[in-house]
Specification:
The complex is a heterodimer. Chain A is mostly helical. Chain A has one domain (16-231): MetI-like (MetI-like fold), CATH 1.10.3720.10. Helix content of chain A is 74%, strand content 0%. Chain A has helices at residues 3-42, 51-66, 69-75, 77-84, 89-114, 118-126, 131-166, 172-182, 187-215, 235-244. In chain A, α2 (51-66) crosses α5 (89-114) and α7 packs parallel to α8 (172-182). The longest helix of chain A has 40 residues, at 3-42. Chain A is elongated, with a radius of gyration of 23 Å. By secondary structure, chain B is an alpha/beta fold. Chain B folds into two domains: 2-230, Rossmann fold; 243-325, ACT domain (Alpha-Beta Plaits, 2-Layer Sandwich). Chain B contains eleven helices and 14 strands. In chain B, the strands form three sheets. Chain B has a six-stranded mixed β-sheet with strand order 6-7-8-3-9-10, with helices on both faces. A four-stranded antiparallel β-sheet of chain B has the order 2-1-4-5. A four-stranded antiparallel β-sheet of chain B has the order 12-13-11-14. Classes of the chains: A mainly alpha, B alpha/beta. At the A-B interface, α6 and α7 of A face α2, α3, α5 and α6 of B.
C-alpha cells in the first residue's frame, strides 16, 4: 500500500478525529467548567460551602472518572443513540468522549480554582464584590493559565480516547489503524497513523503550554515573548524570585544608600 | 467613626472553642490614625477582619460611619464595604491585571463606565506616585510599589475609612517608612480615618494618633499616645519608649520620668541636682517627636532609699513631670 493510497484515507480520518475531539472538547468545557467551579465553591471553606452538594457532585464525578472508557462507550449506548440517532461513526463517538472527559476536566478545574490565593477572594469581597464578582474578577481570570493547562491535558486525553473509540466503530484515526493496520496487516500504515498521532499530541501540548505561558503574568517581563520555546525555565522556579527582583522605590531613584 | 462593642469571635478547634476575640470595645475617632498592636495570635487580624465583616463576629456589634454593619443585609453590606478601603500584608493584587486594571477593579464592581474608571485610576496612581507604572504587571514591581498599588486600589471607592492589615510587615524598614508616610499624608489630605494593625511598635510611634494593645483576644490598654504616656504604669508607653534593663544601684531609688510638651525644655535634672544637692545618675533615656510634640522618658537613680528621696520626687512632680518609682 503506497502513499497515494494512504493519503485520502488519512485526510478523511484526521478530519473525523478533529471533529470528534473538537466537539467533545467544546462540550467538556461547557459542562466541565461550571461543574469544577461548583466543586471548588461548595468545598469546606469555599464561598458557597455546601457539604451535601459537594458530596453529590463529587460522587458523580468520581464514578465518571473510575469507569474505564471502553466500558463507558458501551454502557451509555442508549444515551448516545438518543443524542445522535446512531451508535456508529465519529458523531456517535463524540458523546462518550464528552461524557468521559467532563469529570476528568471538572477535577482539574476544581484544583486550578482552589489554587487561587484566598487573599484575592478576600480583596474582592472587601471591595464590596459578591460571589459572582469573586468568580468573574478573581477566580476565573487568575486561574486561567492553569485552566488552559488543564484543557491541554484533557484534549490530549481525548485524542487518546478517540482512537480507542475508533476500535469499536467510532471513526477517525483509531478505526483506520484497526481496519488497515490490524485486520489487513498493513504495518507501515499503522506506523504512519501512530506517527501522526504523536505529531498531533505534540502540537496540542506545545500550543497549550505556549498559550498558558503567555497568559501568565506571575513572572517578570519579557518571558512571555518566548511562548513556543521549551527553553524557558519552569514557572515554579521563576515565581518566587519575581517577587524579589526589582526593588527600587520611585522616590528613591538616584539614591545610592541601598 | 469605627466602634466595636463587646465583639467576640469563637472558633471551634479540636472539640474545644478558642476565643480569638474576647469582648473587644474599640472606638476610632474620625480623622485619626489608630493602631492596634499585639503579638501574633493576639487577635488583631481577626479584629480588623471583623470590622468590614470579612469574618462575622460570633457576637457583638460593629458600626462604621454610623451604620451598624452587623445588622445589614448581604446586599447592604456589600454596598457599605465600598466605602471602606482595605490594604493587605501580601498586597493581594491580581497577577493577570496591570497596575491600572487592578486599581480599576473596585470601580468595575461598582459599575462605573470605562472612561470614568480610567480617569480615576490615573488620578489615584498619581496620588501614590506610580503614574509611570500604570501598564506594568504586579510581578514587575517591588514590594513597596505593590503596596502603593494596593493603597490606590483601596482608595478607588473614595472611602472614609481605610483598614490596614499589617500593610508594612512584608516590607524592608526603608520602604516601610515611605508607605507609612504615604498613609499619614492620605490621612491628612483626604481626612481619611485609618485603622491599622501591626506587631511593630515603630509603626505606632511613627504614624498613629491613638493605639490599643491587644493580648489574648482582649484590648488591655488603649488611648491617644499622649494619654498613654501620661498614664502611670502604661505598658504601651513602656513599649513605645523602652528604657532598657538598667541595673538598680545598691541602696538607691530608681525613678522613671515621663515628660512631654513644654516640660522638655526645662533643665529639671540640673535644677534637681543643684537645689537638693543630690547626685543624679541617668540609667536610660528615650526622646522622640510624637505628632509634633517632644516626648520622652528618662530613668534616673537617686542615692538613698525612697523615704530619703520623697522631697526631690515631690519637686519633680511639681514641675509637671510624671514620676514613677521603679525600684
Amino acid at each position: 500500500m503506497g502513499w497515494n493510497d494512504m493519503q485520502p484515507l488519512l485526510v478523511q480520518a484526521t478530519q473525523e478525529t478533529a471533529w470528534m475531539v473538537g466537539l467533545a472538547t467544546l462540550a467538556t468545557v461547557l459542562v466541565g467548567l461550571p461543574l469544577g467551579l461548583l466543586l471548588a465553591l461548595t468545598r469546606r471553606g469555599g464561598l458557597l460551602q455546601n457539604a451535601g452538594a459537594n458530596k453529590l457532585v463529587g460522587t458523580v464525578v468520581n464514578v465518571g472518572r473510575s469507569l474505564p472508557f471502553v466500558i463507558l462507550i458501551v454502557a451509555i449506548i442508549p444515551f448516545t443513540r438518543w443524542v445522535t440517532g446512531t451508535t456508529l461513526g465519529w458523531q456517535a463517538a463524540t458523546v462518550p468522549l464528552a461524557v468521559g472527559a467532563i469529570p476528568f476536566f471538572a477535577r482539574l478545574v476544581e484544583t486550578a480554582v482552589v489554587d487561587v490565593d484566598g487573599g484575592l477572594v478576600e480583596a474582592v469581597q472587601a471591595m464590596g464584590g459578591g460571589t459572582w464578582a469573586v468568580v468573574r474578577k478573581a477566580l476565573l481570570p487568575e486561574a486561567l493559565p492553569a485552566l488552559v493547562s488543564a484543557l491541554t491535558t484533557t484534549v490530549i486525553a481525548l485524542v487518546g480516547y478517540s482512537a480507542m473509540a475508533g476500535t469499536v466503530g467510532g471513526g477517525g484515526l483509531g478505526t483506520l489503524a484497526i481496519n488497515y493496520g490490524y485486520m489487513r496487516f498493513e504495518t507501515t500504515f499503522m506506523w504512519v497513523i501512530a506517527a501522526e498521532l504523536v505529531v498531533l499530541v505534540t502540537l496540542v501540548q506545545l500550543a497549550g503550554e505556549g498559550l498558558a505561558r503567555s497568559l501568565d503574568h506571575k513572572r517578570p517581563a519579557a518571558a512571555s515573548r518566548w511562548t513556543l520555546r521549551r527553553s524557558v525555565p519552569t514557572r515554579t522556579s521563576a515565581a518566587p524570585e519575581a517577587a524579589e527582583t526589582p526593588a527600587r522605590e520611585p522616590e528613591l531613584t538616584g539614591s545610592t544608600s541601598r | 467613626m469605627i466602634t466595636t462593642s463587646d465583639l467576640r469571635k469563637v472558633y471551634p478547634a479540636q472539640g474545644r472553642e478558642i476565643a480569638a476575640l474576647d469582648g473587644v470595645d474599640l472606638h476610632v475617632r474620625q480623622g485619626e490614625v489608630y493602631g492596634v498592636v499585639g503579638t501574633s495570635g493576639a487577635g488583631k487580624s481577626t479584629l480588623i477582619r471583623c470590622v468590614n465583616l470579612l469574618e462575622r463576629p460570633t457576637s457583638g456589634s460593629v458600626s462604621v460611619d454610623g451604620r451598624e454593619l452587623t445588622a445589614l443585609s448581604p446586599a447592604e453590606l456589600r454596598e457599605t464595604r465600598r466605602s471602606i478601603g482595605m490594604v493587605f500584608q501580601h498586597f493581594n493584587l491580581l497577577a493577570r491585571r496591570t497596575v491600572a486594571e487592578n486599581v480599576e477593579l473596585p470601580l468595575e464592581i461598582t459599575g462605573l463606565s470605562r472612561r470614568q474608571r480610567a480617569a480615576k485610576a490615573r488620578e489615584l496612581l498619581d496620588l501614590v506616585g506610580l503614574a509611570d507604572k500604570a501598564k506594568a504587571y504586579p510581578a514587575q514591581l517591588s514590594g513597596g510599589q505593590k503596596q502603593r498599588v494596593g493603597i490606590a486600589r483601596a482608595l478607588a471607592g473614595d472611602p472614609k475609612v481605610l483598614l490596614s492589615d499589617e500593610a508594612t510587615s512584608a516590607l524592608d524598614p526603608e520602604t516601610t517608612r515611605s508607605i507609612l508616610q504615604l498613609l499619614r499624608d492620605l490621612n491628612r489630605q483626604l481626612g481619611l480615618t485609618v485603622l491599622l494593625i501591626t506587631h511593630e511598635m515603630d509603626v505606632i510611634k511613627s504614624v498613629c494618633d491613638s493605639a490599643a494593645l491587644m493580648r489574648g483576644g482582649r484590648v488591655v490598654e488603649s488611648g491617644t499616645l499622649h494619654e498613654l504616656l501620661e498614664r502611670p504604669g502604661s505598658e504601651l508607653a513602656r513599649e513605645l519608649f523602652p528604657l532598657g534593663e538598667g541595673e538598680p544601684l545598691q541602696g538607691s531609688t530608681l525613678l522613671d520620668i515621663t515628660f512631654q510638651g513644654e516640660a522638655t525644655a526645662q533643665p529639671f535634672i540640673s535644677q534637681l541636682a543643684r537645689t537638693y544637692n543630690v547626685d543624679v545618675s541617668i540609667i536610660g533615656a528615650a526622646v522622640e517627636t510624637l505628632g509634633g510634640r517632644q516626648v520622652g522618658r528618662l530613668r534616673v537613680s537617686l542615692p538613698g532609699s525612697f523615704d530619703e528621696n520623697v522631697v526631690p520626687i515631690g519637686y519633680l512632680r511639681e514641675q509637671g513631670l510624671q514620676v514613677e518609682v521603679a525600684a
